[in-house]
């Protein structure tokens, strides 16, 4: 079930370094939220804090609150591994498991998670996930071939299939198209559009046209000043952000005057 995320007064540190300060935002369920902003302003850092990936870096920590459908993500009773299962992540470079077949790549997360599954159940998950990732027709006759034998765009869709196979509540995407050609990018953008009927999606992108095309809401991050932490400058409906933003810095960034 797709979930909403409420972030309040979020500060994110790498050791003593305060990378991002004072983020407040709401990410709506069953919608696409894009994070944009110049390099180094903390988009990926905020994204990783949303499924507790940030804390795998030694010394990294967060302060503030992240609530996922009313449940505190950083509550001491919450198991971070369980969080990463429910809030999936797709990375910049497609990263299928190199020695595994297409079939086994899709099931990798399910196998880590759970009990033994019957073959028919596994087949059903593989087909549903590959269909969900718009890859089924291209690979259905070679499911036992290595995932690495696919094109870059197909590999990224395979990674999306792997992420959705465990039926996460939220899908985080960190520049998922930056290593892809325009045709594969367009396939992933179509897919994002379809997936939002089931999942809450957050995407970091450097491509403003992409943010405008795929997202319902956009958050613009920027550094407070050189050497200062990143902050969320403005978050609004994407249409408004790209036509009539509230903040001057958003306007300047979107119109290409900096960044
Ligand atoms: N593992 C890390 N250890 C220490 N500092 C880090 C680490 N990762 C990121 N940072 C710092 O945190 C700040 C925010 O980085 P982050 O990667 O989140 O920015 P970004 O907006 O996603 O940038 P880009 O668009 O270039 O990917 C930067 O100052 C960066 O140097």
UniProtKB/TrEMBL annotation:
Domain ABC transporter: 5-248
GO MF terms held by the record: ATP binding; ATP hydrolysis activity; phosphate transmembrane transporter activity
Gene Ontology terms: cellular component: membrane
Protein keywords: ATP-binding, Nucleotide-binding, Translocase, Transport
InterPro entries: AAA+_ATPase, ABC_transporter-like_ATP-bd, ABC_transporter-like_CS, P-loop_NTPase, PstB-like
Biological process according to GO: phosphate ion transmembrane transport
Top-level taxonomic group: Bacteria
Protein's recorded name: Phosphate ABC transporter ATP-binding protein
Keyword Transport: yes
């Amino acid at each position: 079930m797709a979930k909403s995320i409420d972030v309040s007064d979020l500060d994110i540190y790498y050791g003593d370094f305060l990378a991002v300060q004072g983020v407040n935002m709401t990410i709506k369920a069953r919608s696409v939220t894009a994070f944009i902003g110049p390099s180094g302003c903390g988009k990926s850092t905020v994204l990783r804090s949303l499924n507790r990936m940030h804390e795998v870096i030694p010394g990294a920590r967060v302060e503030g609150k992240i609530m996922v459908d009313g449940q505190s993500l950083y509550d001491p009773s919450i198991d971070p591994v369980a969080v990463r299962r429910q809030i999936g992540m797709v990375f910049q470079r497609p990263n299928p498991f190199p020695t595994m077949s297409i079939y086994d790549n899709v099931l990798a997360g399910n196998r880590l998670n759970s009990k033994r599954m019957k073959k028919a159940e596994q087949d059903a998950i593989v087909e549903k996930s590959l269909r969900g990732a718009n890859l089924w027709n291209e690979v259905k006759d070679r499911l036992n071939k290595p995932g690495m034998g696919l094109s870059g765009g197909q590999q990224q869709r395979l990674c999306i299939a792997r992420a959705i196979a465990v039926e996460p509540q939220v899908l985080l995407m960190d520049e998922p198209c930056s290593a892809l050609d325009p045709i594969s990018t367009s396939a992933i953008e179509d897919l994002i559009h379809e997936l939002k009927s089931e999942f809450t999606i957050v995407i970091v992108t450097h491509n403003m046209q992409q943010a405008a095309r795929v997202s319902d809401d956009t958050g613009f991050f920027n550094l407070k000043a050189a050497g200062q932490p990143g902050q969320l400058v403005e978050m609004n409906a994407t249409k408004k952000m790209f036509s009539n933003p509230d903040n001057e810095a958003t306007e300047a960034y979107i119109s290409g005057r900096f960044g």
